[in-house]
Amino acid sequence: MARVNVYNEKEIQILKEGGRILASILIRLEKEALENVSTKSLDKMAYDLCIENDAEPAFLNYTPHGADRAFPASVCISVNHEVVHGIPNEKPKVLKKGDVVTLDMGLKYKDMFTDSAITLVVGGAEYNKIGQEMIDVATRALYNAIDIIEPGVRTGDIGQAIEDTVKKNNGKRFKIPTILGGHGIGHGIHEDPFVPNFGKKGEGVVLKEGNVIAVEPILTENTSAMNMLNDGYTFVTQDKGLAVHVEHTLVVTKDGVLILTDRLQ
Ligand code: MG
Ligand code: MG
Predict the structure, then answer these.
(1) Which residues contact 164 (CB under 8 A, 6 or more apart)?
(2) Is the confidence at residue 5, as pLDDT, over 70?
(3) Taking the model in full, what pTM does it have?
(4) 196 cis-preceded (ω within 30 degrees of 0)
(5) How far is the CA of 203 from the centre of ligand 1 (A)?
(6) Nearest C-alpha neighbor of 40 from the set 87, 110, 102, 6
(7) What pLDDT, on a 0 to 100 scale, did the predictor assign at position 231?
(8) Cα 98 to averaged position of ligand 2 atoms, centre (Å)
(9) Mean pLDDT (whole number) for 45-71
(10) 171 C-alpha to center of ligand 1: Å?
(11) Engineering a disulfide at 217: which of 64, 108, 141, 212 sits with its beta carbon 3.0 to 4.6 angstroms away?
């Protein structure tokens, strides 16, 4: 059974500060993710902004379970058919108008971790209408999931809220790669429980006040079948269809939920 950490007021205060820093970094990176900008320069900027804020990029030199080398960059940048864990600084890409770009970043601040991701269309929504529709559905799924979170909610309830939102989209029916999903976070970047992007209400782990989780809907355009590139990190769609990913870290509060990585605060 998953053991889910409960965080106290003091720890949550640090997570709030870290989450605010991470949100501000993602806002900056989003503004800089323009045509002709290289993913390597965005990675450098992510690193510099962490250091400026007395924080550390949590993914840099981190070796997740099952990986055979450490991640070499400060931010995962996944472009177009790259689903997650794109490496921005090894074979850097120069962004083009219409590229669908996910910026996914973990931050360590005062020994506590937060994690957040955004996806954008380079140049603006009009340059990739299907990419923007995917971003809109994923974002709606994220907020529909956040809306139901309160003490007593189960990870299956969260998964169902995400899956239902994707199924109810009036446009194209996007897919959910079920091996990827959210997670507990706080003292570590990845903790129990697994927070699926699919599921059934009433199933899974019960969450309570003080639990901290990252919720992260990830959608693919046509098929959820993926391959991993031989860099050992980057997942890509097998059919080269697009992928998007949005994520917030949040804490379950006495009467609901607080988004720690909210960019609107
Ligand atoms: Mg993330
Ligand atoms: Mg995450």
Answers:
(1) 144
(2) yes
(3) 0.97
(4) no
(5) 24
(6) 87
(7) 97
(8) 25
(9) 97
(10) 27
(11) 141
CATH number of the domain that 224 lies in?
3.90.230.10
Given a cut of 90, whether residue 1 has pLDDT beyond it is no
The phi-psi region of residue 124 (left if phi > 0; otherwise alpha if psi is between -120 and 50; otherwise beta) is left
Domain membership flag for residue 1: no
Q: Is residue 111 part of a domain?
A: yes
Instruction: Report the number of distinct structural domains present in the chain.
Output: 1
Can you give the pLDDT at residue 8?
Answer: 98
Q: Looking at the CA of 183, name the nearest ligand.
A: 2
| Mean pLDDT along residues 144-162 | 98
Q: How far is the CA of 71 from the centre of ligand 2 (A)?
A: 14
pLDDT in tens, 194-250: 999 999 999 999 999 999 999 999 999 999 999 999 999 999 999 999 999 999 999
Q: What is the residue range of 68's domain? A: 9-259
- Between the CA of 256 and the centroid of ligand 1 the distance, in Å, is 22
Predicted confidence at residue 131, as pLDDT, reads 98
Q: How do residues 24-45 score in pLDDT, each as one tens digit?
A: 999 999 999 999 999 999 999 9
**In angstroms, what is the span from residue 32 Cα to ligand 2's centroid?**
22
User: Is 17 inside a domain boundary?
Assistant: yes
Q: Which ligand lies nearest the alpha carbon of 106?
A: 1
In-domain check, residue 108 = yes
* Ligand 1 centroid to residue 40 C-alpha, Å: 18
Residue 228: helix, strand or coil by DSSP? strand
* Chain mean position to CA 250: 12
Cα(193) to centroid(ligand 1), Å: 15
Taking a C-beta distance cutoff of 8 angstroms, is the pair 146, 213 a contact? no
